């Protein structure tokens, strides 16, 4: 596993991780002339190599904030900086992983993972990175399989490998485990933390699962109802690997649920 992580970091253009500064960001959608405010005056700094989780009510704007950080959209107001430079468009160093794996059904797992390198014209020189990424997520033996032959957890692993092969400095995770069964989700939570610790990228995770947030993240940000503002921040000062029955994590989970308006 360590050798695979080293191989992925060997790409000459790769940064190991980056910091992100979100400054006074507000955003709204124009729906047939009707303005729908989604985010309001978001100020948030994420340190290079940090793992931050975003929690909040459904539809409050968490996923929108990830799209803005990825560069897929521009905020209505404010700015988003990566290492001091404005984020104005998508970049291979910032990868967004969605809840659905969105694999190409006609392509093998290997070819799905190769998509990013192929699009950048570097596949021939960096073919070995595909196998390294598949090793990292435990799918090396399934490189010739097709998406319909994979379980839900395996498909999500393939999506993570497709992200990791680009050696992202910033990994944006939009509820990537949300549709998995509970046992598969628990396994992939552990694997995601292990990948983050090995590859040392910066991670921002959107989730509705408070327990998942405190198990994975070094800091948890709680957002309000739409238009989302930052309501509270919680540092998770527990060593990895973490255990869900850790009394400090259980107490923190209760505190966050109370902040979200749910009594325990």
Describe the fold and architecture:
- The chain is globular, with a radius of gyration of 18 Å.
- The relative contact order is 0.19.
- It is built from 9 helices and 10 strands.
- The termini are far apart.
- It is an alpha/beta fold and about 260 residues long.
- Helix 5 (about 130-135) packs across helix 6 (about 150-165) and helix 8 (about 210-215) packs across helix 9.
- Helices cover about 35% and strands about 25% of the residues.
- It has a single domain (about 1-105, about 170-260), classed as Rossmann fold (3-Layer(aba) Sandwich), CATH 3.40.50.300.
- A 6-stranded mixed sheet has the order 6-7-8-3-9-10, with helices on both faces. It has a 4-stranded antiparallel sheet with strand order 2-1-4-5, covered by helices on one side.
Helix content: 25-40%
Any low-confidence stretches, pLDDT <50, length ≥5?
A: 9-13
- Terminus-to-terminus distance: 40 Å
Number of domains: 1
Count of beta strands: 10
Biggest beta sheet attributes: 6 strands, mixed
Arrangement of strands in the largest sheet: 6-7-8-3-9-10
Note the run of SSEs as H and E.
Answer: HEEEHEEEHHHHEHEHEEH
| Continuous helix count | 9
* CATH classification, class level: Alpha Beta
What is the CATH topology descriptor? Rossmann fold
The chain-level mean pLDDT equals 88
CATH architecture: 3-Layer(aba) Sandwich
Strand content: 15-25%
Shape: globular
CATH superfamily: P-loop containing nucleotide triphosphate hydrolases
